[in-house]
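Quick question, first post here. What does this chain look like in 3D?
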Amino acid sequence: MAITNPLVLPEIREALAPFLPCNDLARCIKVCKAWHASFIPFLWKAIEVNAEHDKLPSLQLLQRHCSSIESLVYHGRIPKDHLTMHYPALRTLLLLHVDQECKEDMSIFLAHSPLTHLELRREPRESIIFRWIIPTSLASLTTLRLTGISLLTLNIDGFWRLCSQLETMDLDRMLLIFPDPPTTPWKMKDLSLTLIQGMTPLEQLSWISRCPDLRCLKWDTRPQTFPRDDFVQSLMTNTWPKLEDLHLERSGASDRQMSLIIGGMRRIIGLSVSRTQVRVQAQAALRFHFPWLRRLNIVLNITETSEFIVEVLRSCPQLESLKADSISGDYFLDDTPWACERSLKTLEICFEISSTPWDKDRQQRAIVKRLMRLSSLERLDLTDPQTRTHGGPSGLEFRLERGLEQLATLTRLKEIVFYPKIEQLAMEDVEWMIKHWKNLKSVEGKLSLKDVSESLRLANKFSEAGIDTKMIVDQSSLILSYIAKKAK
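> Answer (accepted):
Ran it through. C-alpha cells below.
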C-alpha cells in the first residue's frame, strides 16, 4: 500500500524532531501513541531545573527518561535525589548559582557522567569546585567554562591534568592563585581569559604560550599591565602557528604594536580589539587578511573610521560581522558594490547623517539603497557605542515615507537597534516591520521622542507579535525604559 503521508514513517518524524521548538514537540507527543514514541526522546534531550521556581521534574520522570537527557541545567539548589540518577547520554551540564550542601554527592554524580561540556557560574568556594571537576572519569571532558569562581592551590595536579585534555577553556572574572604549570604542551584550541585576578598578565601569557594548537584567543585585561611587547614577541616567534581568531580587549596597544600583532598571524578570520589604535600601520597589516576575514570588531578604538570601514566592506568577500563606531553618510553616495553584500549577517555601526536638508535626503536614500542589498543580514545596530547611553547621533529614519519599504529584502533580520532623532515611528511603520520581517525577534530603540503613551502603544504592538522590545523614550529630562517580553 502506497504511503500518502510521509509523517506516518517514524524515520521521517525523527528526522524532523531536532528542528522543532519545545512547544511544538509538546503538541506532537499528544497526537497519537506512535507520534509520542517518536517525539518524546527529543523533548527530554535538554532539561532545565529550577527548584526555587517549581521547575522540578519528578524523580520518576527523570528515571523514565534519563537515557534521553543530553543537556542538563540546574539553577540554585540541586535536590539530592537527582544526584542519585545516572544519565548515560549526558554530555552538557550547566550549574548556575548552585549551593554547597551537595558537594560530595555531586562529586559522585560527575564521576559517573560521560560529560564533554561542563559550565559553572558564580560558585564562591574553591574547594567545592575542585572536588566536582577533578574525578578521573571526566577524561571525556573537552570544554570547561567557569565564571566568578575562586581557584586556589588545592589539588593542583588534578587541575593541570584537566587542562591538558581540554580543547576549550573559558575563565571569566576568576581568582586564580597557582604555581607555574608543567611545561607539557596543552592541546587547547579555544582559550578565553577575562579579568583574571591572582595572576599577573605575564603569568597568564605563560599559560597561553603552552597552547601551540590555539586557534581562538580571547584575552581581556587592564591596559596598564597588558604585556604588549611580550605578546608581540610570542607572535613573532610563531608560538601559535594556527591562531586565526583574536580578541584583545583593553590592550592599549599602539598602532605599531597592533600592526606587529596582526602581521604576526598567518591568517585572520576574526579580529576584535577595543581601546587600542588601529591606524595607518595596523590597517596596512590587516589588508593582507581581507580575502578570508569573517568577523571584525574595532569599536571604541582610535582609528580613521569612515574610509577604512568602507574599504573593509568593499574588499572582504567572506565578511559576516562588522562592528565599528561610526561612518559618515557621504561615503554611501558612491555606489561601488560591497564584496560582502551576500555574506554580511551582523552590522553594528552608527551612520552620521548631515543635518543639511538636501544632503540629509541624499544620504538617507543612499544608505537605505545600500542596506536593501544585504540579503543575509540578521542583526542591525545603528547606535554609536561612544554615546549609547543617551541615544547616539544616528539620524537614519525608519519610516515608510523615508524609504522603509525598500528594506523588505531583509527577510532574515532578527534583531534591530535604532535611535531615530528627527521623527518618531508611527503605527504604520511598526505594522510594516511586523508584516515584512517575519524572523524579527528583538527591537531596541527610541520608538517615540514626544509621546510616552504612543511609545507604549508601539511597544505593545511589537510584543503582541511575539517580538521582545526594549524601548527608550526621551521626554525633557524623563527617560523611560520599558521592556515588553514575548507572551508565553
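The radius of gyration is 26 Å.
Residues 277 and 345 are 26 Å apart (CA to CA).
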